[in-house]
Amino acid sequence: MGDTKISYDEQFGIRTFKREICSELGEPFWLELTDGLVLPDMETEAGCKCCNMHTFICRLEAMADEKTVRKILYRVRHGIHPSQSAWAREEFLEIGDLDMFLQKHLETETERFIELNREHKDFYGQEITDEVLEFIQKNPSMLAPIRHGNKLHCMAFPYNMREYLDAADDTMRRYHACHCPFAKESILSDMPVSPILCYCSLGHVMNFTEAFLGRELEGRVVRSVLNKDLTCEYEITIPEDIMTQYIAPRGMENVIDTGKNE
C-alpha cells in the first residue's frame, strides 16, 4: 500500500483532529463542535463501541460541508507526514519513470513478504502464513499503487488477515479488515461510525504517493468497510504533468503486469 517501513507518531489521537479542524475552520468552531461532547479517546473507544467518535463525526458532518470534512480528515492521516517517506522521492527521481518505480517497489515489497513467510516472521504482529501470502500476491495494490491510466489504485491491508480470511460472515470480515481504533468496534454495533472517517485512511495511503511525487494530490475512497464493503480501496489521480514527464509513451492505458486479471 506504500511505505511499510514508516515509523508512526505515538502522539496521534484526537489532538490531531483538533489541530486540523482548527487549522481549517478556527478554534471557535472547535469549541462549538465539542461543546458538551465526550471526546473520543483512542485507548478507550473500544469500550463503548466507538460511540463517542460516532457522535463527534455526526456533529462535524452537520456543522461543515462534506468537501471540507473530507479535506480535514484527509489531512489527519493517522498523524503521519510525507517527510517520513523522503527516501521514496529520491528513489523516484533517480529512476525517472513512474511505472518502473512502482514495479520496483512492488517487487521489493513482494519479496519482503515472501521472506517473512519463509522465515516464519510476522508483519506488525500478523503471521504471514501461506494463505495470507497468497492473498497478498493476488492483491498487489496492498503492496504498491497500481496504475490504471491516470489513476493509482491502492488497497488497505486487513488489520488481521488470517482472521479476515477465516471469517464466517461479512460483518466479521469487515471487522477484521478495519484498522481504526476510533471506528473498528462500531462495526459490531447498531451505530457504525460514518464512512466519511475513512478519508483519514485515504490520507494515510496518499502519504506515500505524495512523498515520492513531491506534492499534494487528489484522491477518493472507492470502497470502505464502514460503508459495508469487504475491502478498503482508494484511487489517486496522477497530475497531467506527471503523466507527461514520468510515463514513457506506452499509452495512457498502460497497466503494470501483475498477473491478475481485472
Strand order across the largest sheet? 3-4-6-5
**What's the count of strands?**
6
Proportion in helices: 40-55%
Q: What is the percentage of strand-forming residues? A: 5-15%
Number of helices: 11
Q: Assign the structural class, choosing from mainly alpha, mainly beta, alpha/beta, alpha+beta, or little secondary structure.
A: alpha+beta
SSE ordering: HHHHHHEEHEEHHHEEH
Give the CA-based shape.
globular
Radius of gyration: 19 Å
Determine the N-to-C terminus distance: 18 Å
Largest sheet: 4 strands, antiparallel
- Mean of pLDDT: 91
Unreliable stretches covering 5 or more consecutive residues = 251-262
Question: What report would you give on this structure?
Answer:
The chain is α+β, with helices and mostly antiparallel strands. The protein has a domain at 79-246. The chain is built from eleven helices and six strands. It has helices spanning 14-25, 27-34, 51-63, 66-76, 86-95, 98-118, 130-138, 161-166, 170-177, 199-213, 240-246; strands spanning 122-123, 126-127, 146-148, 151-155, 218-223, 233-237. Strand 3 (146-148) and strand 4 (151-155) form a beta hairpin. Helix 1 (14-25) packs across helix 2 and helix 6 (98-118) packs antiparallel against helix 7.
